[in-house]
Amino acid sequence: MRSEEPVSMPRHVAIIMDGNGRWANARGLPRTAGHRAGVERVRETVRTAAEAGVKYLTLFAFSSENWNRPKEEVSDLMGLLRYFIRRDLAELHRENVRVRVIGCRASVQPDIRALLTEAEDRTRDNTGLSLVIAFNYGSRNELARAARSIAEQVKSGALDPASIDETTLASYVDTVGIPDPDLVIRTSGEQRLSNFLLWQTAYSEFVFMPCLWPDFDRQAFHEALAEYCRRDRRFGAVSAPELAVGS
Ligand code: IPE
Ligand code: IPE
Ligand code: MG
Question: Is 213 touching ligand 2 by the criterion CB < 6 Å?
């Protein structure tokens, strides 16, 4: 027997925005054109998420491995992040969006670091959608940084190794205070995590979409949300309806 209750909307949606390069290639355009088209989709996606009642939206914008791309492409991507924050921060703030950034800040250019900090500071008290930008983000790097911080606390005597548990680790990763993603969407047909949120996605639902990121429109987003609503999340236990039948 299935419960008649509608499955609730995901509270946290995380998106691996993939396929900009292939979108541009298919049109005989340089990869940058794909990245530019991708930024326009980001705007629409933030709005759609807020309208759908999603509380946290995490976007994978630049991975710690993306530095391995040609210098010009990396520089274009940095330029687009600057452009996005300068152009959209005021509007995000007006729409009550709170911006948070995860990833390693130490190795990004100082002006970008300042922009990211400005975006976080300016929107800190907003109570609407939380937009989490994963920038220079790699989960293995995040976990290594967390392990280092924990080791420093132990060394200084502030933390007892015997007290370290899952909650402790969760409080040292970049996403501290942010609930785990309920739904992870990856566009472009690739079916891998590419070093994204390894710790946080232990019980996330995954939806892989064939469309390339610049083609990810409102309808595609709603399709992914609808697919999520059809899933039966068990977290290692048994379904709620089965429990009801058994009691
Ligand atoms: C995603 O699109 C954007 C970033 C990784 C920054 P890609 O640039 O990876 O596009 P494909 O995968 O080459 O098509
Ligand atoms: C993941 O996409 C990173 C972002 C979307 C920012 P990639 O295109 O870099 O991943 P791989 O190389 O296909 O695994
Ligand atoms: Mg890619």
Answer: no
The residues assigned a catalytic role are: 18, 66
**Protein residues near ligand 3, an ion, with CB under 5 A:** 18
What predicted TM-score, i.e. pTM, was given to this entire model?
0.95
pLDDT digits (tens, 9 = 90+) for 117-146: 999 999 999 999 999 999 999 999 999 999
Residue nearest to atom 10 of ligand 2 (CA): 194
Give the integer Cα–Cα distance in Å for 34 and 26: 10
* CA distance linking residue 66 with residue 74, whole number of Å: 7
Beta bridge partners of 62: 135
Q: What is the pLDDT of residues 33-69, one digit of tens each?
A: 999 999 999 999 999 999 999 999 999 999 999 999 9
Q: 161 CB contacts (<8 Å, ≥6 apart)?
A: 154
- CA–CA dist 98, 121 (Å, integer): 9
> What is the Cα–Cα distance from 49 to 102, expressed in whole angstroms?
19
Give distance in angstroms: CA of 21 to centre of ligand 3.
7
What residue ranges define each of the domains in the chain, with the CATH number in brackets?
A: 12-138+180-236 (3.40.1180.10)
Q: Which ligand is nearest to the CA of 19?
A: 1
Q: Which of 76, 101, 136, 194 to mutate to test the pocket of ligand 2 (most atoms within 8 A of CB)?
A: 194
Give the model's confidence band at 231: pLDDT under 50 very low, under 70 low, under 90 confident, else very high.
very high
pLDDT in tens, 166-182: 999 999 999 999 999 99
